[in-house]
Amino acid sequence: MSLILPTQGLLAAGGGGGTPPADDPYFANVVALLHFDGADSSTTMTDVTGKVWTPFGNAQIDTAQSKFGGSSLLLDGTGDYMTTPSSADFAYGTGDFTWECWFRPLLIGGDNRYILDHGANGGTFHILVASNRVAYYNPTTGINSELYNAGPIVSLNTWYHIAYCRQSGTTSCFIDGVPAVSGADGYDYAAQVLSIGQYGGGGFNFAGHIDEFRITKGVARYTGAFTPPTAPFPDS
User: Fold this and answer.
1) Closest Cα partner for 5 from 185, 177, 227?
2) With contact defined as beta carbons under 8 Å apart, do 129 and 113 qualify?
């Protein structure tokens, strides 16, 4: 596979640094963008695109950990999550899209722990930590991906970049820029409620930190191995 660089380019690396460049060539396609920056314990979750996200449980900004910007979203695994209402922006149809974020697990093993979910009643698709591996649900096949048994093993207290893209009817999951698994996906995605940190039908909460969450509609940003972002996502 060819090396595909992130659209924001390669800037200064580091757990709390990096200044984004001025422009993202696909910014007009960005339909959700949360940096999770703010004061410690804040429950204000700002989406650059203007969407309103409601936190539940003890979901809050935490300055103890971040990939960029000095803070991130903290979810304790016992009822913490966020949602935003259904929107036409989340109706991808059969077109391309990219979901991505950084995550840092505090608990693994036991119940599946959902990082992202598209849909209020169990989800059209979702990305989760299953035991100590990352998996995603392919709505075309109706099964969770092979990542359950063959995906990369994730460790506690470690930041990982995850990207889930569809291009021309094929979805691919990348962990730290490495292609993990792909499969045919011609599903017609309708507008749905989005959840961060839980299964859309309730429960199975993620425990850990999430940073730099972005959804791009109509664009598969990554089509082969790439270098993970080394700075916050651009705001324009």
Assistant:
1) 227
2) yes
Token pair belonging to 74: 């903290």
Write the DSSP symbol of residue 147.
Answer: H
Q: Are 121 and 200 in contact (CB under 8 A)?
A: yes
Residues ≥6 apart with Cβ < 8 Å to 142: none
Residues in the chain: 236
Summarize pLDDT for 92-149 with one digit per residue, the tens.
Answer: 999 999 999 999 999 987 778 889 988 755 557 778 887 787 877 777 766 555 455 5
User: CB of 211 within 8 A of CB of 232?
Assistant: no
Beta partners for residue 30, in sequence order: 216
* pTM as predicted: 0.87
The enclosing domain of 94 has a CATH number of 2.60.120.200
The 8-class DSSP code of residue 205 comes to B
Phi-psi region for residue 145, left (φ > 0), alpha (ψ -120 to 50) or beta? beta
Q: Are 104 and 62 in contact (CB under 8 A)?
A: no
Q: How many domains does the chain have?
A: 1
7 sits in the region (left: phi over 0; alpha: psi -120 to 50; else beta) called alpha
2: amino acid identity, one letter: S
Alpha helices in the chain (DSSP H): 147-150
**108: domain range?**
27-217
Give the amino acid at 14: G
Report phi then psi at 113, rounded to 5: -125, 115
**Residue 160 bridge partners (DSSP):** 103
138 is a domain residue: yes
